[in-house]
Design a protein that fits this description.
single chain; 181 residues; alpha+beta; 6 helices; 20% strand; elongated
Length: 181
Amino acid sequence: MKINERGLHRDIAYFYLGLIISFSISGIALNHRRSWNPQKYTYEKRDIQYNVPSNDEQVDDAWLAEFSQAIGVDQKVRRSSITDGEFKVFYEYDVVTINVAAGKGQHELLRRIPVLGHMSFLHITTEPMWIWYSDIFGLAMLTIAVTGMFISKGKFSFAQRGWKLALLGIIFPFLILYAFT
């Protein structure tokens, strides 16, 4: 049985069209996460005051639980740190920043950005079922790439011209990696 490269290429691309668009848009957004948070936005800021220990060793789970209750946060603590005199706690949705010396800071209440926040979540989730689906998606992208090599015939075929562009496409990311690492 002969494999119809065009049909296989087309049907896989149709099936994964939504995920391709989602990963493309959210991937672009995540590339700029140093400038802004593509998943969440601050909808309210509250000034808070609380005496914070001067080093990380004194900030244990019990202290964080007491602190969270005192400032009215009922969320799981993701991480906390004291760096350069600044205490930060990252919760599932909120962020608290306090100047250790002054004991004053802010509690930022965050919400997920509609659509974009959910799309970018797909890039970072490690749920087992999603990992399997993403692996299958990766294989589908490989299939789309390979079948795409055989769609054009003649002077625009992979053998005539496509291999040169593919080679450039492989070399270019390595040049970028070399330049920035």
